[in-house]
Design goal:
about 220 residues; mainly beta; 4-stranded antiparallel beta sheet; 3 helices
Length: about 220
């Protein structure tokens, strides 16, 4: 009989050990763990990564990953092609209203078992690179939130200045964080909205936005 079998009342008897998994620690601020609680999560860095999604949207937004509403600020995302999709209401069409960043942490909060397999800091952010597509016409179904959707007829968001909220506003910190991450403000191309909408220049409801991205493991150093 092994020493481990003899330690019947030892807490460590039930500890999980792995040479391939990384242990994350989340506070109650990051996940619903109750006040002062903590949640531990194992993940395999060779199969998936925890992405931290951050955004600053001047309007009401619904956000989804591969067509599914996000329930965690840092979900585990498998390697491969994915789509982030947004439905935004009450946004100003005459200025920038959208900023986004997906950040991969450089290491888990708990030390990884295999340090040589930790992933370097990586991110993709909102930018006028032609990959942030939108339409003002309601899609027929939810296919627009999937990778196989043909969005060649959709238009692309362009660089537009996102106005800074008042010092008392709650969005000032979020906007500053987005700028630190390198996210660019996006909006609709200025094509004379005053003429197009007969003076209705303040808002448009809604807009559908999608971006396809490919999550890949970083090469070993």
């Amino acid at each position: 009989m092994s020493d481990r079998d003899l330690r019947l009342n030892s807490v460590s008897r039930y500890s999980k050990e792995s040479s391939r998994l990384v242990l994350e620690e989340h506070s109650h601020c990051e996940v619903p763990a109750g006040c002062g609680g903590v949640v531990l999560r194992w993940f395999n860095p060779l199969r998936a990564l925890p992405l931290e999604f951050r955004m600053y949207v001047k309007g009401d937004v619904k956000f989804a990953l591969d067509g599914n509403a996000i329930k965690s600020a840092r979900p585990l995302v498998d390697y491969g092609e994915h789509v982030v999709s947004f439905v935004v209401n009450r946004f100003k069409i005459t200025e920038g209203f959208f900023m986004f960043a997906a950040v991969v942490e450089s290491k888990a909060k708990a030390a990884p078992a295999l340090k040589d397999q930790s992933v370097s800091h990586n991110e993709f952010v909102s930018d006028a690179d032609g990959s942030w597509k939108y339409t003002l016409n309601a899609p027929r179904d939810d296919a627009w939130m999937t990778t196989g959707f043909d969005d060649r007829d959709w238009q692309t968001l362009v660089l537009r200045t996102v106005t800074k909220p008042s010092a008392k506003g709650t969005g000032a910190y979020q906007l500053e964080k987005m700028l630190e991450l390198g996210a660019k403000g996006l909006g609709l191309e200025d094509i004379g909205w005053t003429t197009k909408l007969f003076g209705k220049t303040r808002s448009s409801d809604p807009i559908w936005i999608r971006k396809v991205f490919n999550l890949t493991p970083r090469p070993e150093r």
